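Exercise 7. Given the encoded structure of a 332-residue chain, write a plausible sequence.
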């Protein structure tokens, strides 16, 4: 049984706490949050004690894992502290803003012989697991074009997202989901070129990126963290290849957890008139993600997402940022 300290009792922290309740090989033994009201509420939900600092929690509890769910600019400090305490570390995305920072985190975990994973939960989104299977089994054939989008209004449950020094804006906070997924099925691209809109606070919150791979595969990834009006949280994936087109369209309300207002998941086989309506077994993606990490720790097996993979995804994100700011194609 893993004893887990959750750092951060906000929106994501509560989502992680709910997931641990469904696991039989891990339990939350402490919640850390500087905000006493938030921390105590989350600790009550988890059935454990609240602590103001990670140091206090580590001293009081026999923890062997730390789950970090605080704003991005705080990640490095908590990851290093957790690693130095010989605790395995699960850290929410976006992991950090620079490769130098990420390398310090990786090195701390390696030096202390603990496992470290970035929580890229979109890889466990049910429909995206099916999409990945289509790629792995070459069911689309040679890819002509991929289009992927993730559009949302600005979160109303926190204000730190509007500060580029704390969140990185839509480029880091939202866009990284789709970049990570494309990386998981296609690997490192050969080049990227991006155009976008920067908010008055300095966040790249609307981004459209063209990606090209060595084999000629091309993709366009569109992201917005600042849709206007009553625009619904929307996700779309479309992949077209020699053997057919796979399309997934999803729309919720203001928030991703709001009731779905529309969803379509279909495959159009080349040379056939019939459209194949697809189904994905609906599982809680946080339970699947956290459970996969916990199992890797308990069984001492390879992680579902290695630190090296997450480092590559950060490299791609930094290249997109360079392209946005300098108007250039960035090659790897």
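Solution.
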């Amino acid at each position: 049984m893993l004893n887990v300290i959750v750092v951060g009792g906000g929106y994501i922290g509560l989502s992680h706490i709910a997931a641990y309740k469904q696991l039989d090989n891990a339990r939350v033994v402490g919640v850390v949050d500087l905000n006493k009201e938030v921390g105590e509420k989350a600790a009550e939900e988890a059935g454990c004690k609240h602590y103001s600092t990670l140091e206090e929690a580590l001293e009081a509890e026999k923890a062997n894992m730390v789950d970090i769910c605080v704003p991005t600019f705080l990640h490095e400090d908590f990851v290093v502290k957790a690693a130095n305490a010989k605790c395995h570390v699960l850290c929410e995305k976006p992991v950090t803003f620079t490769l130098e920072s990420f390398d310090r985190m990786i090195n701390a975990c390696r030096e202390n012989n603990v496992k470290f994973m970035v929580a890229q939960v979109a890889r466990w989104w049910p429909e995206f697991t099916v999409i990945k299977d289509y790629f792995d089994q070459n069911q689309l054939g040679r890819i002509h074009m991929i289009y992927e989008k993730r559009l949302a209004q600005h979160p109303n449950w926190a204000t730190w997202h509007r500060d580029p020094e704390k969140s990185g804006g839509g480029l880091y906070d939202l866009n990284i989901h789709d970049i990570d997924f494309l990386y998981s099925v296609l690997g490192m691209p050969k080049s990227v070129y991006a155009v976008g809109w920067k908010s008055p606070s300095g966040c790249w919150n609307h981004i459209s990126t063209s990606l090209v791979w060595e084999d000629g595969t091309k993709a366009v990834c569109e992201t917005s963290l600042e849709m206007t009006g009553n625009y619904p949280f929307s996700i779309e994936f479309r992949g077209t290849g020699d053997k057919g087109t796979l399309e997934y369209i999803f729309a919720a309300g203001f928030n991703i957890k709001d009731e779905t207002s529309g969803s379509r998941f279909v495959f159009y086989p080349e040379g056939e008139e019939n459209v194949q309506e697809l189904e994905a077994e609906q599982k809680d993606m946080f339970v699947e993600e956290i459970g996969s990490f916990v199992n890797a720790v308990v069984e001492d097996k390879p992680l579902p997402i290695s630190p090296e993979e997450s480092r590559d995804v950060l490299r791609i994100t930094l290249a997109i940022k360079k392209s946005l700011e300098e108007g250039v194609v960035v090659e790897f």
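Remark. The chain has a mean pLDDT of 95. Students should compare their own answers with the one above.
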